[in-house]
Write a structure and sequence with these properties.
The protein is built from 6 helices and 4 strands; from the N terminus they run ααααβββαβα. The chain is of the alpha+beta class. The protein folds into 2 domains: 76 residues, no CATH class; 50 residues, no CATH class. A 4-stranded mixed sheet has the order 3-1-2-4. Bound molecules: zinc ion (ZN). The site of zinc ion (ZN) has 6 residues, from loops.
Length: 148
């Protein structure tokens, strides 16, 4: 009896997306549903979860492909190849001043008279800044603003 090779593609409609599509989609999924470090829960770009997402696309696959084409046009190149800084959605900015160890929301009184500049909050944290105790930037970033 001859060996018949079974093509996994026949069972997984998601495989009709190109490898580039899948990479882009996976990266996008990771941004939309990032891993929740606190709970040890994986993000949507986790291998198993992403495979499941792609498998369940079904008839939405064409729409997904269209969206990915649009994404590629917006990015001007392969989305998955972009550096994180360019591919990531806009991030809340905080204000830091040279020589001061804290980061602030815009307009914090602690910034008065200081030469402050806006940076993405992740960069402020990476650079070793800690949240200001007066304006509580993390609180503001974590919630929608209440007073406009
Ligand atoms: Zn402050």
């Amino acid at each position: 009896m001859s060996t018949v090779s079974v093509q996994p593609a026949q069972r997984h409609p998601g495989n009709e997306l190109t490898q580039a599509d899948l990479r882009n989609l996976r990266r996008l999924a990771g941004f939309m549903i990032p891993a929740a470090g606190d709970y040890g829960a994986p993000g949507a770009d986790d291998e198993a979860i992403f495979t499941d997402i792609v498998r369940s696309l079904g008839r939405d696959q064409n729409d997904v492909r269209k969206a990915l084409v649009m994404l590629r046009e917006l990015a001007g190149e392969d989305f998955a190849a972009l550096p994180d800084a360019e591919a990531a959605p806009a991030e809340p900015e905080v204000w830091v001043a040279d020589g001061y160890p804290e980061y602030h929301t815009a307009g914090c009184h602690e910034l008065n008279g200081r030469d402050a500049e806006p940076v993405p909050v992740s960069q402020a944290v990476e650079d070793g800044f800690s949240p200001c105790g007066r304006c509580d930037p993390d609180n503001l970033i974590g919630q929608p603003t209440e007073n406009g």
